[in-house]
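User: Quick sanity check before I run a bigger batch. Here is a single chain. Can you write out its predicted 3D structure?
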Amino acid sequence: MRYEKIQALRQALHQCPERSDQEYETIEKLKLFLQKNTTLELHPKDGWFYALHREEQATQTIAVRADMDAIENSHGQLFHGCGHDGHSAILAGLGLALEGKRLGKNVCLVFQPGEETGTGGKRVCRELFQELRPDFMLGCHNIPGKPLGTVLLRENTFACASMGLSLDVTGQQSHAAYPEQGKNPAFLLSSIVLALPELIEHITHGDPERLLMATVVQMKAGERNFGVSAGTGTLALTLRAYRQEDMEALERAILDMAQTGCERAGMTWQSSRQDVFPDTVNRPECCARVANILREHNLPTQVLSEPMRWSEDFGWYLQEVPGMYLGLGAGEEQCGLHTDGYEFPDALLEPAINVLETLVRAL
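Assistant: Done. Predicted structure follows.
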């Protein structure tokens, strides 16, 4: 296979970064590439598509998923700072590698939108499985700071569950000289922030193997008017945990505090969730199976000592079918993901395609 084609595709995708769930030009470039270079069946959907290597009388289906969306840099410009251009190019390259091969199975290549916001995986998972339910599902992410091409493995939690939690509290505005005549939400919201370490300790019992975090993203009460005691307030948190149940327990504890505090102070409140990601969990038996295949084919592997703190919506697929989420070392000298200087290394394309082809054939 000519990897120059895949490199050119990756660079073309890099030049058209698109927002989550708006990957229109990206999809067209990928479909055109596959139409020109493969005989895969293309199945266009609303905002995504899959390509199918179908074999007559095959009873097994392996699915491999890649994401396509971009992020904003520190200047508010869209760019592929998470390497999803590379992920899509790798998956298209896998299609080329399988062209004309007899595998004794079907292979489904899923090009998914909206990973960065957590919206794509849940929707695509639901829609895909109505048509085609794979026997095994593979996904991967490039990991800078790790040796180029090394496959990074971890059983159980690979990537954290996370969610954005917003609290909006309405009290009563008053003159700043007479704050007792109003109901200022700032005190309640501050008490919740100050209580977070104790809430986390209560849930995890101090177990270092149970990461649970609450990051304050925004805390605001009223506007900057020095003659006013605020009557409205907002607290925005990012909750993150190795284990889904721990994150949900922290969410319940925070909402209980908001409910109790508002009842006592005579205020009202509402909450909302954003960017909800499940924990991405590799079943031990699936991890062992994949590790054995990689070892038999002398492919370099490394076991991660702890989960990745970032989140990944591939967890939705793993809740439904057996599968495996992998890391792929992007080079020890690479910039970090989501930093302005990051670009997916083309040197990773060939080893990544080789890893996926090896697994697809052997699973």
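Residues 74 and 340 are 7 Å apart (CA to CA).

User: Great, the batch can go ahead then.
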